[in-house]
Amino acid sequence: MITVPQKFFVYILRTPDNRFYVGQTNNLVRRMKEHHDYDPNSRHYVESFEDFKFLYSEHYPTRWQAMKREKELKTWTHDKKSALVYRDIAKLNAL
């Protein structure tokens, strides 16, 4: 039996008021659908917005690594997250 390695994702969404939402999942497609469908698992934050835009993701081989990165990104300033999302490496390194 062949097993497919699990991938875990850290992702960033932007809300209409230009805030960033950082999350992690093992199924990015399902998670985006949950956010769009206002699934109870995602209601705590994004339900207050009519729409949001998927901007960025990274993948990791373990949930622990993804959760560690999610926690790190959540401590970053808006400007630093913006530099990451829009790949402004010079600005990202300066922050």
Order of helices and strands: EEHEHHH
Q: What kind of assembly state do the chains in view correspond to? A: single chain
Beta-strand content estimate: 15-25%
Report the radius of gyration as a whole number of Å: 14 Å
Number of domains: 1
Q: At the third CATH level, what is the topology name?
A: GIY-YIG endonuclease
Number of helices: 4
Question: CA-to-CA gap between the ends?
Answer: 47 Å
Fraction of helical residues: 25-40%
Give a brief outline of the structure.
With 95 residues, the chain is an alpha+beta fold. The chain has helices at residues 28-36, 63-75, 78-85, 89-94; strands spanning 8-14, 20-25, 53-60. It has a single domain (8-94), classed as 3-Layer(aba) Sandwich (GIY-YIG endonuclease).
Question: Would you write up a description of this structure?
Answer:
With 95 residues, the chain is of the alpha+beta class. It has a single domain (8-94), classed as GIY-YIG endonuclease. It is built from four helices and three strands; from the N terminus they run E-E-H-E-H-H-H. The chain has helices at 28-36, 63-75, 78-85, 89-94, and strands spanning 8-14, 20-25, 53-60. The protein has a three-stranded antiparallel β-sheet with strand order 2-1-3, sandwiched between helices. The protein is globular and about 50 Å long. The mean pLDDT is 85.
